[in-house]
Amino acid sequence: MSNEFGALEADNETPGRMDILHPGTEDVIRDHQGNAAYLEILSPDSEPARKVDLARNRAVVRKLRSGRNRDVGDEDPIEDQVEKLVAVTVGWNLIDPKTRERMDVPFSKENARKLFSNPRLGWLRRQAFTYHNNEANFMQGSSKS
């Protein structure tokens, strides 16, 4: 495959690092040493993201083909966000904003599901989903990732 469009390409397989912003102050949450809390997130065109999108699209097509057209809009957008974020999150450094201590919650897909599905952490789910959907965070040479 030729690479004549290389300068336009996004990096689909290297995670971007999203610094976690405190929802009240919008400052980056940091530990006592100044290390930022962050999530490592893959782009919307990464293989895991595309698999989630494909599964979702196939489910909609199955409903349409089965004549259950009225069920097509019944999906929960929050559940969709959780599924996507579990698939595209590949690491983290979580810091308690009150104590400024690193949280002892190792990254795993199971822990990611707990994090993103917790209604009290909706602010973090929305931050992560917004970051994930911004292609600028994954462009080569971008200062945003």
Question: Can you describe this structure?
Answer:
By secondary structure, the protein is α+β, with helices and mostly antiparallel strands. It has one domain (about 10-140). About 35% of the residues lie in helices and about 10% in strands. It is built from four helices and three strands; from the N terminus they run ββααβαα. It has helices at about 45-65, 75-90, 110-115, 120-130, and strands at about 15-20, 40, 90-95. A three-stranded antiparallel β-sheet has the order 1-2-3. Helix 2 crosses helix 4. The longest helix is centred in the middle third of the chain and has 19 residues, at about 45-65. It is globular, with a radius of gyration of 17 Å. The two termini are about 25 Å apart.
Query: Whole-Å distance between the termini?
Result: 27 Å
Structural class: alpha+beta
Computed CA radius of gyration, to the nearest angstrom: 17 Å
Quote the average pLDDT: 89
Number of distinct beta strands: 3
Order of SSEs: EEHHEHH
State the helicity in percent bands.
Answer: 25-40%
Task: Tell me the domain tally.
Answer: 1
In percent, how much strand structure appears in the residues?
Answer: 5-15%
Low-confidence stretches: none
Strand order of the largest sheet: 1-2-3
Which shape, going by the Cα principal axes?
globular
Key attributes of the depicted protein:
145 residues; three-stranded antiparallel β-sheet; globular; alpha+beta
Helices and strands in order, then pairings?
Layout: E1 16-19, E2 38-41, H1 47-65, H2 77-88, E3 89-93, H3 109-117, H4 122-132
Antiparallel strand pairs: 1-2, 2-3
